[in-house]
Specification:
It comes from Aureobasidium subglaciale (strain EXF-2481). This is Major facilitator superfamily (MFS) profile domain-containing protein. With about 475 residues, the chain is mainly α. Helices cover about 70% and strands about 0% of the residues. It has helices at about 25-55, 60, 65-90, 90-105, 110-115, 120-150, 160-185, 195-215, 255-275, 275-285, 290-315, 320-340, 340-355, 360-365, 375-385, 385-400, 405, 410-430, 460-470, and strands spanning about 10-15, 220.
């Protein structure tokens, strides 16, 4: 912060991770960040339709918000955020993200105040610029928070832990459309942008409040060096004889495939959210206010799905869960493309339930065994969110040229790619149905910043005794 003033308090966890009660406070702080961007994302989908009404723009033009949000923010800024995280640590990275987030939100006030149909193009361009600044902040927060949630605790429970944190993202995301249905589509507000000013002023204040909380909090910092605690535990090697996490990051093919899967998944999720209201209005005859409420209910379903998936992941293999859920989303999405009427809206809402664990699980799979590359790998996986910037204009063009129902073939393609990636992981696990109890994982005794763990090996009796001592 300018002028010095308040010191940034951190505690370094060298060669280890937190457990038990020590884990509660850091996870609670990180969860607040998931809540922030969930609320912001929930508002974004509703703004698409609101700007179509007030500024008279097309469906394709309205996806400019998604292009700025996911393309400008996440694709372009995530590598910068990852480098800040690599050089300065989690806390500085988080404070930078909160600053950008709050600045972008407060910029909505003057933009909305001077907007009108007479200067629709300039007005919408201003909103896109505001969205870009917010997205840069959120990309920074997501790069830090996703990675931190994975590495701060036991690698054995990385996937359920990240799913739990991400579940609060869903809690906030359904609050956004609920507020928007009243603030944007009701009465005189349906044809003006006045309430957009006040809603985003509140968003900015919320970001500032969380930033102040982080300034004074003692956030444990995870050491990046891959230090092992005992020479009895040997590093794991790949089929080429390289130590896992020690080679070039561009040869981490699992991470690259994880990026592609994340790109396609987020693209599918974003297009479904961006065109949900249009689909409900065009294909089922719902009023816009009712459609906004239905979107909120769909996001509630998404949130419930996150918590249920977190519970299932403590018993079942995450890869197995993802294969089942991917098949379900593909089947439901196919029905959405072909069906008509209110039943098809139910299918769209059901997709939200099965999408729920996909982002955190793919993130955990993609950053597994990265070792010293974990922080940069997290930034690359977050860049996958840019899929929303690519898929949305494609779907918007199809919706304008044909209809909204046919345009839902775009997310269907995304879910097919996700299925291929998670099926590959499930195959690597030997098609296990139950969650593998990693008592024989090398990181059970070795304290390394390698994120989640997907490899196993049998240990010698001496090593097993050492692991037992560590656990006791």
């Amino acid at each position: 912060m300018a002028g010095g003033g308040i010191p940034i308090a951190t505690t370094t966890i060298a060669g280890g991770f937190l457990t038990g009660k020590k884990l509660i406070f850091p996870i609670a702080l990180i969860t607040s960040l998931f809540f922030l961007w969930g609320f912001s994302y929930g508002l974004l989908d509703v703004l698409n339709k609101h700007f179509q009404n007030v500024l008279g723009i097309t469906k394709l033009e309205s996806t400019g918000l998604q292009v700025m949000y996911f393309g400008g923010g996440y694709l372009i800024f995530s590598p910068i955020a990852a480098e800040v995280l690599k050089r300065f640590g989690y806390k500085i990275c988080i404070l930078m993200g909160l600053s950008l987030y709050s600045i972008g939100a407060v910029m909505f006030w003057p933009t909305a105040h001077f907007s009108s149909k007479a200067n629709a193009s300039a007005s919408f361009g201003g909103f896109c610029a505001c969205t870009l600044v917010i997205a840069c902040g959120l990309a920074t927060l997501e790069t830090a928070a996703n990675s931190y949630a994975v590495v701060i605790g036991d690698p054995k429970t990385a996937s359920p832990r990240l799913q739990f944190c991400q579940a609060w993202n869903g809690v906030a995301s359904f609050i956004g459309p609920l507020i928007a249905s009243k603030a944007f589509f009701s009465g005189k507000n349906a044809n003006n942008l006045t309430n957009v000013q006040f809603v985003y002023l509140g968003v900015s204040c919320l970001g500032v409040a969380v930033a102040i909380l982080f300034v004074f909090a003692k956030l444990p910092e995870v050491a990046e060096e891959a230090k092992r605690n005992n020479s009895l535990v040997e590093p794991e090697h790949d089929i080429e004889g390289r130590e896992i996490g020690q080679g070039s990051i561009w040869k981490e093919y699992n991470m690259i495939c994880g990026f592609i899967a994340q790109f396609c998944y987020v693209g599918a999720q974003v297009t479904i959210g961006a065109f949900f209201i249009n689909y409900a209005v065009d294909n089922a005859g719902w009023a816009e206010t009712q459609a906004s409420n239905l979107l909120s209910y769909a996001l509630i379903t998404f949130t419930v799905g996150r918590f249920i998936a977190t519970g299932l992941a403590t018993v079942l293999s995450s890869s197995f869960i993802m294969v089942l859920y991917s098949i379900a989303t593909i089947a439901l999405n196919a029905y959405v493309c072909a069906g008509k009427g209110k039943g098809s809206i139910g299918a769209v809402m059901a997709i939200y339930f099965f999408m729920a664990p996909m982002y955190p699980t793919i993130f955990t799979m993609g950053t597994a065994n990265l070792g010293i590359h974990t922080r940069r790998g997290a930034g690359i996986l977050v860049m996958g969110v840019a899929g929303g910037a690519v898929f949305s204009p494609i779907q918007g063009a199809i919706a304008d040229a044909a209809n909204t129902r046919i345009s839902f073939v775009v997310p269907l393609v995304g879910f097919l790619v996700v299925l291929a990636y998670v099926a590959f992981h499930w195959n690597k696990e030997g098609f296990a149905v139950l969650r593998v109890k990693h008592d024989d994982d090398i990181v059970a005794a070795a304290g390394v910043e390698g994120g989640a763990v997907i490899t196993k090996r049998s240990m010698s009796i001496t090593e097993q005794q050492y692991v037992g001592e560590i656990k006791n």
